[in-house]
Amino acid sequence: MEKLVSGWSTSRTTLPESYIFPLETRPGELHFGPDGNSNIPVIDLDEDHNHDQTSIIQQIIKAGQEYGIFQVVNHGVSEELMDETMKVTKEFHEMPDIDKARECSKDPKMRCRLYTSSENYSTEQLHYWRDALVHPCHPLEEHMQFWPENPTQYREIVGKYTEEVRKLASKILELISQGLRVKPGYFSGELSENPIVLVNHYPACPEPGLALGIAKHCDPSVITILLQGDVPGLQLCKDGKWVVVPPLSHAFVVNIGYVLQVMSNGKLKGAEHRVVTNSSVARTTTSLFIYPSNDSIIKPETTLTDACNPPLYRAVQYKDFRSYYISNAADAEKVHEFMDRHT
Ligand code: OGA
Ligand code: NI
Known about the structure:
- The strands form 3 sheets. Strands 1-2-10-7-12-5-4-3 form an 8-stranded mixed sheet. Strands 6-11-8-9 form a 4-stranded antiparallel sheet, with no helix packed on it.
- It starts with a helix and ends with a helix.
- It has one domain: Jelly Rolls (Sandwich).
- The protein is built from 9 helices and 14 strands.
- The mean pLDDT is 94.
- Helix 3 crosses helix 6.
- The protein is of the alpha+beta class and 343 residues long.
- Residues 217, 219, 273 line the site of nickel (II) ion (NI).
């Protein structure tokens, strides 16, 4: 495996050439303070606080239309479990490279794996300032046996965490299905059959203005639920400008993915986002991606299209979409072209 950034970065005061992005895509001077104009919606999922369910649904749909991203509070996942998950995932990435590699080589199908930069390390021209641990999480009994056994509490804590966050994802998807007026349970079958955990780690970076943790992309998921902790780094591209998604204690960031954009025929927007680094602290995040099964067909839901709203996207098997997405490094324009009904 390529050398993990966390293994060599601490001794550097400048970036290797292959991590320096060109002027157009590098972040440049970074301001993490509250910029006052991001206004990314924060939605309280507790009906007792927030009027009633209809109002929560409206807020989610509006956020999905205008931003493609929002944060949720009073979401039902225990704060203690969120803290423990943050702690154990940080501990994982703090282990020596050799131990991390060993902990991620138990799965004969290599679905639990560790990589650096991106899945295209060997072919990409420039590298990203991140290491990633990825593994499936459902059904738990089937996959947990291949997860890291060190740190010793990893399986227990991340197992509990993913079960809780999966429930939260189902709840949010159920609210979205009501908001879109599609049938109840629309997302609960094959469209959410393949949830994946991704633990990203972005070490402190000597020249954060020149590097990227992850380039601009839209997740290839239905939705993604992100625990970002208290270190900023996630940015949303809103009306052509980058805005910080501010860390909010014990909130989750919810991202609309490209699959939901297609399914809703563009009514909900997949959020275009990226990750930047900073020079003082490492940042560790845990995402749960709700992915469809490989064989499912993704397409605009027929009840959401008619003569005035013709389908914008064609029907594609998820595995074909996914391999196109990965091999084109998530390039939004190419993905649009691939999905465009007229091509
Ligand atoms: C991703 C992603 C955000 C983050 O992994 O797709 O956007 O803050 N991660 O780590
Ligand atoms: Ni993403």
